[in-house]
Amino acid sequence: MSEIKAITCPWRKKCGGCTTIGQPYQLTLDTKLKKLNETVRPAAKVDEIVGMEDPYHYRNKVHWCFAMQNNAYNERVHVAGIYAAGTHKVISVSNCLIENEEADAILKDIVQIARKYKMPYFDEDTGLGLLRHVVIRTGHKTGQIMVVLVLSDREMPGKKNFVDLLRKKHPNIETVVINVNDQKTNMVLGERETNAYGRGFIEDELCGKRFRISSRSFYQVNSEMTEKLYGTAIEWANLTGHEKVVDAYCGIGTIGICTADKAKSVIGCELNPDACKDADVNVKRNGLKNVRIVNEDAGRFLSEMADEHEKADVIFLDPPRSGSTEEFLDAAAAVSPGRIIYISCGPESLARDLKYLKKKGYTPRKAKAFDMFPFTDHVETVVLMSRIEGK
What angle, rounded to 10 degrees, do the helices at 25-40 and 347-359 form? Predict the structure, then answer.
């Protein structure tokens, strides 16, 4: 990897998100690998961490908060930006070094347009105001952009003019979604949505496949590194075209769909119904006849497979940061796959789950880390587990 210039962020101390921004990139990689091994050993040893050629502006999903806050003179003012780490205090930022640059430009224009139309920001203390959040998702390969305006009420005065002006400035915007969150909650998105412009979703390409992404569906925020990570995971699965594959926690179906050409059959399992709808569409868009999506808890589904004495040859699991559950891991072992490919974004939960899987007769054969979130404390790890002979 060529030497990458270290850039200092003026908001680093206030924001707290990028803990190592300003340090030499290779140093941040070495530190992550060391800390990762300190956490996951003796459950596994991670031999390598894969970094980015350019670790800046990689986030294809950007989120800003809009709030009423007291300034230094104790005056209530409009503030737009990001939450300071561990707080609900919004700090104003510009030119974030890890966010998509066009998304940042759109956010700045939204601030200007909201000011033009005198759109009130939401006040957590009083519950008054309209604009709460804006989420922008960008297709890394397609360039398509989705803007999600999160409002406290479904009525948005001047909505058409607002959207027309925003699209005039940014013609790559494929769709604008109005999401209504009228609850007192820390959740960003509410349950109700309408399309102010476009179809309500964007598309992107990953590992040669095309995917539909809606506002509430999970999609990895670093597309470049996701392709590298998935490439390794699929390579380690060692598929020959005869295997039955289960893609647990499948989201919009990315891993299973990228695997389908090399497998006999693929079952994707996902609890989020919105993600399942996207996954079903993605299966059809890619013309795949050997992929089935199941809207169910992954542990329960595998338990049902085990009860029916069904087997799986390979299981991919990519659980949330909290890791998997004993129910899932018990069920995974019960369907007796030859290989389990565990993709983890939580080193502590990974170490715990690997130890549990060892009790179930599986042992790590390979492990590799991927710097999915440069300059933050987070790291993604892929582990190949195989069944111990005689168990």
Answer: 40
96, 258, 269, 345: which is the annotated catalytic residue? 345
Nearest CA among 344, 250, 366, 362 for reference residue 36: 344
Tell me, what's the pLDDT at 390?
A: 55
Count of alpha carbons within 13 Å of 256, Cβ hemisphere only?
Answer: 32
Q: What is the dihedral of CA 125, 130, 132, 137, to 10 degrees?
A: 180
pLDDT at 1: 54
Per-residue pLDDT tens digits for 104-146: 999 999 999 999 999 999 998 898 999 999 999 999 999 999 9
Nearest to 92 by CA among 80, 103, 84: 80
Cα separation, 82 vs 260, whole angstroms = 39
Question: What's the whole-model pTM score?
Answer: 0.91
CA dist., res. 281 & res. 212, Å (int) = 7
Strand order in the sheet with 76-83: 90-91, 76-83, 61-70, 131-138, 145-151, 173-180, 192-197
CB atoms < 10 A from the CB of 329, how many? 24
200-223 pLDDT, tens digit per residue, is 999 999 999 999 999 988 889 999
**Averaged over 309-335, what is the pLDDT?**
93
Active site residue 345: yes
* SS3 state at 386: strand
Q: 207-210 long-range contacts, Cβ below 8 Å, gap at least 24?
A: 207/231, 207/234, 207/258, 208/258, 209/254, 209/257, 209/258, 209/282, 209/286, 210/282, 210/285, 210/286
Name the average pLDDT for the chain: 93
Largest CA distance in the chain: 72
